[in-house]
Design a protein that fits this description.
2 domains; about 40% helix; OB fold (Dihydrolipoamide Acetyltransferase, E2P)
Length: about 160
C-alpha cells in the first residue's frame, strides 16, 4: 500500500515541477517513484506483478507529462503560465516612426543590423538588403520591432 502512495506523491511532485521549475520537486518525485518500485518489488510475490507495476508507473508518468505540457500550452484564463503579448496599458518597444523618410549615416557596419546616426541621434537599424558599410549614407524606410529598416541612399528599391 505504501508503494502506491509513494508512486502517487512522486507523480504529483513531477507534475508540480512543470509549474514550479527548479529541479527539487522533479528530483524528489523521481526518487519517490524509484523507491515505490523498489518497495513494491520487495513485497511482491511474482515477477509479473513487479513488471506490471513498473509498466503502469511509466504509463502514468508519460500521461502526466503529456497532460502537464498540454496544460502549459493551452494556458486558459487570466492565470495562464505564459504572459500575453498584448498586455493592457503596455506597448512593447517599437521603432521611432518620426525617423521614417529621414536621411542619415551608418556609424557601424550593418550586417544586416547595426547603428545609424539620424539627426544627431544614434539608433539601431537593420539593412533591408545586403550589407551596408560604415560611413554609407542611408534612408530610413520603415521599422520592425525596435529597429529601423534602412537602405542605402543610392539604392532605389
Amino acid at each position: 500500500m505504501i508503494s502506491y502512495l509513494l508512486l502517487a506523491v512522486g507523480l504529483l511532485m513531477i507534475f508540480f515541477e512543470f509549474f514550479l521549475p527548479g529541479g527539487i520537486m522533479g528530483l524528489a518525485g523521481s526518487v519517490l517513484i524509484i523507491v515505490s518500485i523498489v518497495l513494491f518489488a520487495i513485497h511482491a510475490e511474482s515477477l509479473w506483478a513487479i513488471i506490471l507495476f513498473v509498466i503502469v508507473a511509466l504509463v502514468l508518468l508519460g500521461a502526466l507529462v503529456q497532460f502537464a505540457l498540454w496544460r502549459i500550452r493551452s494556458g486558459r484564463g487570466p492565470k495562464s503560465f505564459f504572459l500575453h503579448t498584448d498586455q493592457e496599458g503596455y506597448v512593447a518597444s517599437t521603432f521611432a516612426k518620426e525617423f521614417i523618410g529621414k536621411e542619415g549615416e551608418a556609424i557601424s557596419d550593418l550586417k544586416p543590423a547595426g547603428h545609424i546616426l539620424v539627426e544627431g541621434k544614434r539608433l539601431q537599424a537593420v539593412a533591408k538588403m545586403g550589407y551596408i558599410y560604415k560611413g554609407t549614407k542611408i534612408i530610413v524606410i520603415g521599422g520592425e520591432g525596435a529597429h529601423l529598416v534602412v537602405k542605402t541612399k543610392e539604392n532605389k528599391i
